[in-house]
């Protein structure tokens, strides 16, 4: 189940919030090779040139979509010091060798515990739900096109990567002020706040981080199997239910493409149709961007079954291309750029724009 390798750090390539990318020379098995690897210093310690590292190379060896990285598991000859004693007893990545103890925003030791004991409503806050992590900067671009002053918080679910630190997108959006904060929920970790469930994560975004708008999406690394139900994005429908239960305003972003080679993702992806059409039991605003033909007609036909369950909103996309091109974070989905899959990013931006226009003036 795991391919283990031992190697030596030969270069520090780059670093961003919570992560370091290194080059590792791996001598065995022959032939010797150099690998790109990711370390999360809060879990492993800070790697330096010359360190021996223990790597998990499973996904890389199999050619899976993990960004082409091996993962640093440990610095076995230079273990980090014990963490300082402090509050927090929430365990994430539970019962794995990398399980970590964090301070949950909702646990008894948290200074926000009483607030979250009392909080029971999102107070009508718009919450944009997206299938893929790659929609995040596009949703933010749409929000900023309408309300550049809005406080936007990202709530990351655990359907993709567990460490939020993997995401250079989040780091870049934070650095440029496009995101005011982040919350990691479930088994995901590494956000500004940690929460046990999506429900408390949403409440924390609203009441602790004072979000005007939240965005819910999994981290990088969507998993799909080509079966009707075997994909991690099914949680988008469950997110709609959670938002509505807490008195928020669910805004459903559609996964739309005319560039994806897979039939099941052309037009409106079956991921969106299943998540919103069968899993989401609460009513949401489903955002349909006004697109040129013939894609526009196909999308209209695809979303027709959703009208019985949701409010389908047609949104003009004037100005959204400019907004998308202003993104400080690289726009890429499944290796396709903004120009290569324009409809995908327009759909996400339209959802953000619609949500921003729900805010009081």
Which helices and strands occur, and which strands form pairs?
Layout: E1 4-16, E2 19-26, E3 33-39, H1 41-44, E4 52-56, H2 58-62, E5 70-74, E6 90-92, E7 100-102, H3 113-118, E8 126-129, H4 136-146, E9 152-157, H5 168-175, E10 181-185, E11 193-195, H6 198-207, E12 213-218, H7 235-245, E13 249-253, E14 256-257, E15 267-268, H8 270-279, E16 285-289, H9 295-303, E17 311-315, H10 320-325, E18 332-333, E19 336-337, H11 342-356
Parallel strand pairs: 3-5, 8-12, 8-13, 9-10, 9-12, 10-11, 13-16, 16-17
Antiparallel strand pairs: 1-2, 1-4, 2-3, 4-5, 6-7, 14-15, 18-19
Helix pairs in contact: 4-11, 7-8
Notes on the structure:
With 361 residues, the protein is α/β, with parallel strands linked by helices. The protein folds into two domains: 4-74, OB fold (Dihydrolipoamide Acetyltransferase, E2P) (Beta Barrel); 113-356, Rossmann fold, CATH 3.40.50. The chain contains eleven helices and 19 strands. The protein has helices at 41-44, 58-62, 113-118, 136-146, 168-175, 198-207, 235-245, 270-279, 295-303, 320-325, 342-356, and strands spanning 4-16, 19-26, 33-39, 52-56, 70-74, 90-92, 100-102, 126-129, 152-157, 181-185, 193-195, 213-218, 249-253, 256-257, 267-268, 285-289, 311-315, 332-333, 336-337. The strands form five sheets. Strands 11-10-9-12-8-13-16-17 form an eight-stranded parallel β-sheet, sandwiched between helices. Strands 1-2-3-5-4 form a five-stranded mixed beta barrel. The chain is globular, with a radius of gyration of 21 Å. The protein starts with a strand and ends in a 5-residue tail after the last helix.
């Amino acid at each position: 189940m795991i391919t283990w390798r031992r190697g030596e750090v030969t270069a520090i390539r780059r670093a961003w919030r919570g992560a370091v990318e290194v080059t590792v020379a791996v001598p065995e098995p022959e032939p010797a090779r150099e690998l790109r690897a990711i370390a999360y210093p809060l879990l492993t310690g800070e790697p330096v040139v010359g360190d021996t590292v223990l790597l998990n190379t499973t996904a890389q060896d199999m050619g899976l979509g993990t960004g082409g990285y091996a993962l640093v598991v440990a610095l076995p000859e230079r273990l980090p010091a014990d963490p300082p004693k402090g509050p927090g007893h929430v365990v994430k990545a539970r019962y794995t060798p990398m399980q970590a103890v964090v301070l949950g925003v909702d646990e008894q030791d948290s200074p926000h515990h009483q607030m979250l004991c009392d909080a029971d409503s999102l107070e009508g806050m718009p919450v944009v739900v997206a299938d893929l992590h790659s929609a995040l900067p596009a949703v933010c671009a749409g929000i900023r096109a309408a309300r550049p002053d809005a406080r936007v918080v990202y709530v990351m679910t655990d359907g993709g990567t567990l460490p939020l630190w993997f995401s250079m997108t989040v780091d870049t959006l934070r650095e440029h002020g496009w995101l005011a904060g982040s919350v990691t929920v479930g088994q995901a970790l590494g956000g500004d706040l940690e929460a046990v469930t999506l429900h408390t994560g949403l409440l924390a975004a609203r009441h602790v981080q004072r979000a005007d708008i939240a965005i819910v999406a999994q981290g990088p690394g969507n998993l799909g199997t080509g079966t009707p139900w075997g994909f991690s994005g099914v949680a988008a429908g469950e997110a709609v239910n959670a938002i509505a239960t807490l008195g928020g305003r669910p805004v459903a972003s559609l996964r739309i493409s005319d560039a994806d080679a897979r039939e099941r993702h052309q037009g409106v992806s079956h991921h969106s149709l299943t998540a919103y059409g069968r899993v989401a039991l609460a009513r949401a605003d489903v955002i349909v961007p006004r697109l040129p033909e013939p894609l526009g007609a196909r999308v209209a036909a695809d979303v027709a079954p959703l009208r019985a369950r949701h409010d389908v909103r047609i949104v003009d996309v004037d100005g959204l291309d400019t907004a998308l091109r202003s993104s400080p974070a690289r726009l890429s989905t499944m290796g396709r750029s903004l120009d290569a899959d324009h409809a995908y990013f327009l759909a996400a931006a339209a959802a953000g724009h619609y949500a921003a226009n729900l805010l009081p003036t």
